[in-house]
User: Fold this.
Amino acid sequence: MLLTDPVILENAHVRLEPLAAGHAADLREAAAGLEHAWYTSVPTPADVDAEIARRRAWGERGEMNPWAVVRADTGAAVGMTTFCNIDQANRHVEIGYTWLGVASQRTAVNTAAKLLLLGHAFEVCDAIAVEFRTHFHNRQSRAAIERLGAKLDGILRNHRLGPDGSLRDTAVYSLLPHEWPAARLGLQARLRRG
Assistant:
C-alpha cells in the first residue's frame, strides 16, 4: 500500500477517516477556541471549509494524505491530521498539519491517532522514517512528540515565515523502524492507563 492511498484507520478511541466536506460542521465547532495558538496553523471556524478543500487538493496531487480525527465515543470529528511531505520512492513521510479541538486535547485521542498513523506507516506502508515537525515554541507539541520516542534531528532556524510575518524556527524529529516497537508499546501503555 502507498502512503498516499486513502484508508480508514480505527481503534477503540478514534477513527481516522479520509477528510471530506461532510466533516466541516464538526470541525468548525472543534476549531472554536483555538485562535490563541499563534505557534501552530489551526483554521478559524470560518476557514474550515477552505482548509478541507486545500488539503483534499494536495491529496489529489499525491502530496498529502489527509484525515479527519473522529472520536469513537461521540462520532464527532474533533481535528485533522495528515501524512505530508510524502516521499514514496524513499518510503519517508511526515505526520503533520495536526490539530485537535480543546475538548480532545490531553485525552486518549492524540495517543490513539498516533498509534494508528505510525502503525500504518511502518507496518503497512513499510516506511523507513516518519518525521514530525513543529514550531520551536510549541512546547506542548514537542513534549508529545518526545513522549512518542521520536528523536530530535535538529532545529531549522528561520525556516518559515508565520502568518504574521514572524520568523519560525522548526524543530524536526523522526522515528525509525527499529524504534517503532518500543514506541508502540509506550503508546499502548499510555492508552491502558487512560
Summary: The first strand starts at residue 9 and ends at 10. The two ends are 32 Å apart (CA to CA).
